[in-house]
Amino acid sequence: MRHHYVLPDISKPGKIGCSLPALDVPASDLPSKDALRQDLALPQVSEVELIRYFTDLSRLNYGLDTGFYPLGSCTMKYNPKLHEDVAVLSGFTSVHPYQPDKSVQGALQLMFELQGLLTEITGMNMTSLSPMGGAQGELANILMLKAYFRDKKDLKRKRILVPDTAHGTNPATAAMCGFEITAVPSDADGNLDLEKLKSMLNDEVIAITLTMPTTLGLFDPHIEEINQLVHKCGALLCGDGANLNSLIGKVKFGDMGFDCVQLNLHKTFSTPHGGGGPGSGPVCVKEHLADFLPSPIVAKQGDAYTFMTPSKSVGRLGSAYGNFGVIVKAYAYILSLGAAGMKQVSENAVINANYIKEKLKDSYYLPYDRTCMHEVIFAEKWQKAVGISTMDVAKRLLDYGFHPPTVYFPLVVEGALMIEPTETESKETLDAFIEAMKTIAKEAKENPDILHSAPHNTPVKRLDEVAAARKPDLRWKMTK
Ligand SMILES: Cc1ncc(COP(=O)(O)O)c(C=O)c1O
Predict the structure, then answer these.
(1) Does the beta carbon of 239 sit less than 6 angstroms from any atom of ligand 1?
(2) Which architecture does CATH list for 340-470?
(3) Residues 135-191: tens digit of each pLDDT
(4) Which of 47, 162, 324, 392 stands 20 to 30 A from 431 (CA)?
(5) Ligand 1: distance of its center to the CA of 242 in Å?
(6) Domain 81-337 is in which class?
């Protein structure tokens, strides 16, 4: 087992980890005595110990570069290092948002072209890159819908329908914009319950927000019918395209009848999702919503690129023009993969998820036994019968060296294990994960205690999750 460098243990009075050069400037006076601390609780360690301590800490971090990361819905997808290099080219990093347009034509051209690429990928008519994340893209969508109906003087629509499987940001956004929310239940196959939907649609409904693929990782085959029902009652179809990596190059939101959709560039298009890093949630709309897009968008006049504000814009969503670094990476991703590469992304994402589904469905209960899209969802039913929870399975996976999948989401599946392998994982990696999951299912029956007390091989054992969230201990303190 590896030795861990714990600062209080290696700290000894008198050890020093740095040497300062001789003073070559005039010494200045120290502050008065009572302003100086006599005891400073800092560890005293040698240089090599300090380096080992930090290197050791860095190795405790689990990430996409260290192992398989099957976190469904919010997963770390393919984020090529090449695109990081492109995004930090000095021509991109040293421009200022308020430079005159004519001095940043290259940056504007890139934005203009990305608008066009995303418009084509989604089958829409116009795109704004300005939202800074998925939830902000959803906000932009709902603000546009609100402005659109106000503009038509249709003021009675105050309800948004949201499937019961939806990501929490969907109802939260609708509520933020002042709408009443009605949850549309799913049917036994995991699709939207069409009969229930019909009973809910009337002239008070402004829209339904629909995630595709759904947050059950499924393609709803009734989309055409949903599209007709929703539009027939005068409402609009608002898409959540946060997880595009199973549709890209295959199916377009515009062709499915959606009026608007937000994308998460920080999931599908080469920026890691999660960890609080930068995001970008462009919104792509059909012609009738184009005037309402959040500003600015980039237009081309003659040979020149320029920022412009759509005539009935819902306004700005941030201080500048969106998250430019993320925008650059998305552009590089699309161009480097090309149309054929994008299609392959979707095919690989779907085949990898279905491979896991087929291999694990004898070990874990599969609530919807049908072809899935980019992710597959199991339930804890069979493990629960022997006293094992989804959390026990997730913790035990850590012992086998894997990051656990998303757990307990979506809420409609009891004890959900939402596994998204992503398009880039090899068969060997998938097989190793499947093997670990099968072993855990066996352990659940034969040696449940080993799961209850897992993880055993990690530097920190099972945490009090509530205390960790409510009272995070983020600062190192000298305790000895
Ligand atoms: C389906 C769906 N919609 C919306 C979001 C929100 O995106 P963001 O985290 O960028 O706000 C997510 C995030 O994971 C998501 O999975």
Answers:
(1) no
(2) Alpha-Beta Complex (3.90)
(3) 999 999 999 999 999 999 999 999 999 999 999 999 999 999 999 999 999 999 999
(4) 392
(5) 6
(6) alpha beta
